[in-house]
Design goal:
Elements lengths: L8 H13 E3 L3 E7 H20 L4 E5 L2 E7 L1 H9 L21 H15 E8 L2 E10 L2 H11 L7 E9 L4 E11 L1 H10 L5 H11 L3
Antiparallel strand pairs: 1-2, 2-4, 3-4, 5-6, 6-8, 7-8
């Protein structure tokens, strides 16, 4: 394995992906997503990105409607844990990684990776017409607070709220936090300063343009 520089902007993006859909275990790094709309993203974007960053060969597997990217490397797990501050096992207390703090371009790449894995964009309708809503959902409030704090100085307003729901799989009430970004002005600034590398998300953003 080759450890990339902490100033590498691709590392910042991949760390955002990790914050969204990644997990570390004892000797394995795993990213999981939706097979239906993310297969191209995993095969053409994430797999080459991980290979280029770390000089490791990930494998892609499918199960039902899920897609998985796996890398077996104890060295990678320790790099991500010790150098990037990412937790091994259960993800707790996620926030903006310290190596990106103070570097606007790096944070933008982290937010882009987080958005590509935990975000969505859709058209909302009200009495005044149609407007886009970008939304990022996370179990961890602080990473969304950090994202909002980054977006505010570049002119993007957002709303953070909590949603409690019953999870039939666990039989428990779960909490999920959402950061919503509304309107074409915010949409345009988000596209300009954050953007996406996901083919599916890029297509959804292009669809939004038809409602101007």
């Amino acid at each position: 394995m080759n450890a990339p520089s902490l100033g590498n902007l691709d590392l910042a993006y991949e760390t955002g992906v990790h914050l969204g859909d990644g997990n570390l275990w004892d000797n394995r790094y795993l990213i999981s997503g939706n097979r239906t709309n993310e297969t191209q993203y995993y095969e053409e974007v994430l797999s080459p990105l991980v290979q280029d960053l770390y000089s490791l060969n990930p494998t892609i597997a499918f199960q039902n409607n899920s897609i998985y990217l796996r890398v077996y490397s104890k060295e990678l797990v320790l790099f991500k844990h010790n150098e990037l501050g990412l937790p091994i096992g259960r993800k707790e207390g996620l926030r903006m990684p310290t190596f990106a703090v103070g570097n606007r371009q790096a944070i933008a790449n982290v937010v882009s990776g987080l958005y590509d894995t935990d975000g969505s964009v859709k058209i909302r309708r009200d009495s005044s017409g149609n407007y886009p809503r970008i939304s990022i959902g996370q179990k961890h409030r602080q990473i969304l607070v950090d994202t909002s704090n980054f977006l505010r100085p570049i002119g993007i307003t957002s709303t953070l709220y909590r949603n409690d729901y019953f999870d039939s799989r666990s039989g428990q009430v779960q909490t999920r936090w959402f950061l919503d970004i509304n309107g074409f002005r915010n949409f345009d600034l988000f596209v300009k300063h954050v953007g996406t590398r996901s083919p599916y998300v890029a297509m959804r953003m292009k669809d939004v343009e038809a409602y101007r």
